[in-house]
Automatic annotation (TrEMBL):
Keyword Iron part of the UniProt annotation: no
Pfam families reported in the protein's UniProt record: RVT_1
Residue ranges constituting the Reverse transcriptase domain according to the UniProt record: 346-613
Domain of life: Eukaryota
Keyword Signal applies: no
Stated name of the protein: Putative RNA-directed DNA polymerase from transposon BS
PROSITE patterns: RT_POL
This protein's UniProt keywords: Coiled coil, Nucleotidyltransferase, RNA-directed DNA polymerase, Transferase
Biological classification of the source: Eukaryota, Metazoa, Chordata, Craniata, Vertebrata
InterPro entries: RT_dom (IPR000477)
Coiled coil feature spans: 203-234
MF-aspect GO terms: RNA-directed DNA polymerase activity
Amino acid sequence: MKEFGGAQTEDLFYHPVCRDQLFALRSSAALPKERPELRRSKRGCRAGVIFPAQIHPDLYISRTRSCAGRITADPSHPGHGLFSPLPSGRRLRSIRTKTSRYMNSFFPSAIRLLNTKQPAVTCTVKKWSEETEEALKDCFNTTLWDVFRNAHREDIDNLTNCITDYINFCVENTVPTRTVRSFSNSKLWITPDIKGAFVSGDKEELKTVQRELRRKIRQEKDNYRRKMENQLQQNNICGVWKGLKTISGFKEQKSQPVVSSAATPATVCAPNRLPTHSRHFTLSPMPTPPNNTSLLQPVPHTPHQVRMALKKNRARKATGPDGIHSRLLKSCTDQLCGILSHMFNLSLKLGRVPKLWKKSCIVPVPKTPHPKELNSYRPVALTSHLMKTLERLVLNHLRPLVSSFMDPLQFAYQPSIGVDDAIIYLLHSSLTHLEKAGSTVRIMFFDFSSTFNTIQPRLLGDKLQVAGVDHHLTTWILDYLTQRPQFVRVKGSESDRLLCSTGVPQGTVLAPFLFTLYTADFSYSTSSCHLQKFSDDSAAVGLITDGDDTEYRGLIQDFVDWSLRNNLQINAGKTKELVVVFCRCNNPPPAQVNILGTDVDVVESYRYLGVQLNNNLDWTHNTDALVKRGNSRLFLLRRLRSFGVQGPLLRTFYDSVVGSAIFYGIVCWSSSITDRDRKRMDRLVRRANSVLGCPLDSVVVVGNGRMMAKLSSMLNNTSHPLQDTLTALGSSFSERLLHPRCVKERYRRSFLPAAVRLHNKHNAR
């Protein structure tokens, strides 16, 4: 120890005068190895004189509540500090501190305030059980629902409010509640016994208490693991999956918006700004839906149909603004299907949606880990579960009416068609064209801003009538989308109520399908150009020969003009173009496409529907992304293994989390990747195999199996965009398929030729 102003310095840097207020990190962990004069000597003391003036000021942290969050100053730089940690002292050695680049790089920004913690969250939850469900069933069985019908007749708003209040009244008087306090770092296996063991001992019995604490933690972890195994045996997949995510830390809660009265785009998000930002008001007033009910014919929904729709509710979904729990609707379907079918039919007959069902609570979900502006949030609407049930019934009736009007190259929200089909169609069109000499493929990936929030109900109503939708159903949809009360909820704070008549609420059942209807009137598909869509992800593909891109540019301009007429905002800054050309001649690059006064950037790689596509149409960038994602998921698998989870539970987590990340889009790339990339992927599988302790299928085995399944699905789906191509490959003599003519090895190793070879090999056995 060394003398400093009459005081002694020890391993912990503090001055005796400030002992009760300041503490710092241990010097042995804070000093660099490259500075031997500041390290411990063999005698156990300091080789140099160490005192607070030599320590980086960021290491000082206030210990008292009154000074929480205040960082002290360096005595050698008094102008930089908030207060001085020492009443007096003199600088004994010149050392680079505050302004030193070396010291700034040495002390990372990860050093946090040790006394900072998040407050406990207190909430009130309902204790649902089989007894409470049976009590509610008895209550609703003895209810005279005709009293409500006769009292309100065709007053749909008062009828809905009255029945909703009655259901909530029964729930409040039947289901008990309890108050729960949750902490940010609390785990489900930390029981009150463990917390008691943690605080039971004093300093003399610290080792005994720590030993008892470790024993109890191991015991409670084992009990929690057995609980999940019992849930798996009872086929409670939801409970098992929730427990696995809790243990592994998979998809932890992202950063939430910060509530502030003075919101700035860089740091905060005020609730009162979000509803105005997301609703995109139009200058012209919205048309009022017609009130002439003589032209409207009801669409009857039987109690059996309502019962089946109610059973599709998930019990753990958040309640809407009306307060009705989804678990109540799922458990009391037989008792409520009669009165609900009457309410649904009355709403469709009148062409009006009750105001309570139109009301939505907007929850801003961050798109990025650290959002900085309002556009970085996705406004997800929480609506009534009764309204979602009615939406399912309407969707089942609406889908067959507009099947002939839908865009054949819309791959979203279609039965037996998904992301893999969209990527396969794009690659098949590109690779078949690149078989020709002097060919080029240009792909324009469009990006829209706030797509669902900019839909105009008036334009949607016109398109519904063109598609052949009934007049009463069109009127009901327009009433549903206009004059919608909504408010924003952020961390317990709620904004003012506003009426919105633009867009469709995200998170509802009808919203995705209504958007596909809204964009279905623009479709383009020729032998040299086509526009394919997956919801709001649109891609214009130009198959160019000899540099003639006139049709390709015309398609892009037509699509931009159509978007402007339909109030869809194209983000030209995020719109990218991918140019694929394998010609060895030194031709100049094609001229950039200009959209709304902005030249579109030509990129080497683009992430389309979760798959990395590059200008060589190989899978190097995609493999790098999959390996990176797979390594992060393997860490979660090891955490489960260290927890004691094994057997079926560990395999379930692997198939759901790890395998889904490693084999994402495998039908598109399994036959086309290089041997080097395949070995990298197999190495991930072997590492997962060592953790699981059971054999796992390789990339080739998994890819071949899924390619066979995808080809079989495409053959059985008559509405698939590649159905004509597959029909031309059929044989009239056997179940074998004709192999496509391939000139380049690149096309021969793509999905369709490889799947045909697997299909013929399987049928030859």
